[in-house]
Design a protein that fits this description.
Blueprint: H1 2-16, E1 20-26, E2 31-37, H2 42-53, E3 61-67, E4 70-73, E5 91-97, H3 104-107, H4 111-126, H5 134-149, H6 170-175, H7 180-191, H8 199-210, E6 219-225, E7 231-236, E8 240-244, E9 254-257, E10 261-267, E11 270-275, E12 283-286, H9 290-310, H10 316-478, H11 484-562, H12 574-581
Parallel strand pairs: 1-5
Antiparallel strand pairs: 1-2, 3-4, 3-5, 6-7, 6-12, 7-8, 8-9, 10-11, 11-12
Length: 583
């Protein structure tokens, strides 16, 4: 019974043990979970991941896990659970490139292989595990943008479209005082130059630039040199082994290419590198951690195997892969060309459509404008017809006014001729009157002189009479008694003399009266002549005024006939009229 019971208990324990365990595998662009059998080896899990991803170039990759303060690669020949993997559930592995090619364009055949390498190298550059200059960082970023977004389209890729993308190492961003927009502008300038490059081509161009960086594909380990405990760095890559100073990972102090190494031996903490040239010294270095030493040896063996494999003829599998990849690239190239042609044709069709729509809109606008212009022209035609009718009526009116003006002009001209004739006659009369006045003045002066002579003669006669009387009185007084008869005779004589004297006085009076009468007549004639001259001047002035008014009327009629505004009527000033009629 006890034996049977113990057997049943053992069977029960076996049933309770899980037959599977969970694994989470993280690639560069995805996460996968698998349920693995307990007996699975590392190769079983690795092959499952490769099949899931679709990867055939498996020799570059491995499953890496974290152990304490370092990392290790899952061994393919041992069971997964027998290795120092974490005891978590699920167990986390990172599917990464373990070995790097010497020439990416020749060795990376599959597109998925290129893509995984591109993502890993890009992350190493951004995490500053691989040093990259600012200029190369911008160029690499432009290829990464081309691989992600395709061809640059200014209408679609507006400023700020790279704001959420991590494209440059923080060291580069901190090195220059530039804003994110300025960096984006620099990256976009290169990005615009990559038009027409497909995603796989952009990723390959990225890797071709990255493989020339000094830290590309190098795994670094801290070592010490024998007996002196000098701190150094060991670098393992596809080319060979390199020894660096601790502060410089770019330029190695010493290098051992795989082609120049005869043997690498490992004994606990000591490594020995034996050159192929026996004349050269053997190089020894020490690593304190056993786990790190195993990792170094594993990387050395793997890189050396790949180095030797590259120098041999490709296997049938690799040749098939390359042939298939070549055919696939050719097919994709043809597809891209067809797609490019279709895209070009579609863009041309869209441009033609846009052009047709634009032309349609333009024609619609032109038709609308033409209709509006037609309506305006019809309105204008009606308006012009109305204006033409008005203009015709105005023309008739103006013609009528012009005829009236012509008649008035002829009448005024006739009147002007008549006025000129009357003026000429009046001027002639005036000249005759002036001549007559001159003659009268001359005659007056002559008569005045004659009157003066007569007055003088009269004065002389009066003086002679006075003297004769005086003399007669004197004679009378002296001879009065003796000559009575004589007196009588004298009286007779005296009487006759007195008669003569009296006769002379009467003539003088008569003459004086005639002179006075003639003078008065002359004065009246002169006054009458002056009145006539004044009337002639007044008539001449009135004729001139009428002539000016007639000329102004003709000018206004001509202006009206020509369509000019009429001149204001002639309004003589009052003082002119006073001047014309003043004596």
């Amino acid at each position: 019974r006890s034996g049977a019971a113990s057997k049943m208990s053992i069977l029960g324990l076996k049933k309770k043990q899980p037959k599977t365990f969970k694994v989470k595998v993280i690639t560069m662009d995805a996460e996968m979970e698998f349920s693995c059998e307990v007996k699975w080896k590392g190769k079983d899990l690795f092959d499952l991941v490769c099949r899931t991803v679709g990867l055939r170039e498996t020799w570059f990759f491995g499953l890496r896990y974290t152990v304490k303060d370092t990392y290790a690669w899952l061994k393919t020949e041992k069971r997964v659970l027998d290795q120092e993997v974490p005891k978590d559930s699920p167990i986390t592995f990172h599917f990464l490139a373990k070995f790097f090619p010497e020439k990416v364009e020749e060795e990376l055949v599959q597109e998925i292989t290129q893509h995984l390498f591109f993502l890993q190298v890009k992350k190493q550059i951004l995490d500053e595990e691989i040093f990259c200059s600012p200029e190369a960082s911008v160029l690499l970023a432009s290829y990464a943008v081309q691989a992600k977004y395709g061809d640059y389209e200014p209408n679609f890729h507006k400023p700020g479209f790279l704001a959420q993308d991590e494209l440059l190492p923080k060291r580069v961003l901190m090195q220059y005082q530039m804003t994110a927009d300025m960096w984006e502008e620099k990256i976009t300038a290169w990005y615009a130059e990559h038009r027409g490059i497909a995603r796989d081509e952009a990723e390959m161009d990225y890797l071709k630039i990255a493989q020339d960086l000094d830290m590309y594909g190098v795994s670094y380990f801290a070592i010490t040199q024998n007996k002196r405990d000098t701190d150094l760095l060991l670098g393992v890559d596809a080319q060979g082994l390199h020894i660096y100073s601790p502060n410089s990972k770019l330029n190695p102090n010493k290098s051992f290419p795989w082609s120049g190494i005869r043997n690498i031996s490992y004994s606990e903490k000591e490594f020995t590198i034996k050159p192929l040239d026996k004349k050269k010294d053997v190089f020894k270095f020490y690593s304190s951690q056993l786990r790190v030493n195993k990792l170094i040896l594993q990387l050395c063996i793997g890189n050396h195997d790949l180095f030797m494999r590259r120098r041999k003829v490709d296997s049938i599998e690799v040749q098939q892969m390359k042939s298939q990849a070549k055919e696939e690239k050719a097919r994709k190239k043809v597809e891209r060309q067809i797609l490019a042609r279709e895209k070009q044709m579609r863009e041309e069709a869209e441009r033609a459509k846009e052009e047709m729509e634009r032309r349609l809109f333009q024609l619609q606008d032109e038709a609308r404008l033409a209709n509006e212009a037609l309506l305006r022209s019809e309105e204008t035609a009606d308006l012009l017809a109305e204006k033409a009718q008005i203009a015709e009526e105005e023309a008739k009116l103006l013609a009528h006014k012009a005829a009236e003006a012509e008649q008035e002009r002829q009448r005024i001209e006739a009147t002007a001729l008549k006025t000129k004739e009357e003026k000429r006659l009046m001027e002639q009369k005036m000249r005759e009157a002036e001549q007559l006045a001159v003659k009268l003045v001359e005659q007056s002066e002559r008569r005045s002189k004659e009157a003066d002579h007569l007055k003088q003669d009269l004065t002389e006669a009066k003086d002679a009479e006075r003297r004769a009387k005086q003399k007669l009185l004197e004679i009378t007084k002296t001879s009065y008694p003796l000559t009575t008869t004589t007196i009588t005779g004298g009286d007779l004589a005296l009487g006759s003399g007195s008669m003569r004297i009296d006769f002379k006085d009467s003539d003088m009076k008569r003459l004086s009266m005639e002179i006075e009468r003639e003078r008065l007549e002359y004065v009246e004639k002169s006054k009458h002549l002056q009145d006539q001259l004044k009337e002639l001047k007044s008539e001449i002035e009135s004729l001139k005024l009428e002539e000016q008014q007639q000329q102004a009327g003709v000018y206004s009629l001509r202006n009206e006939a020509r369509g000019y505004p009429p001149e204001p009527p002639y309004m003589p000033h009052s003082n002119v009229r006073t001047t014309l009629h003043a004596p």
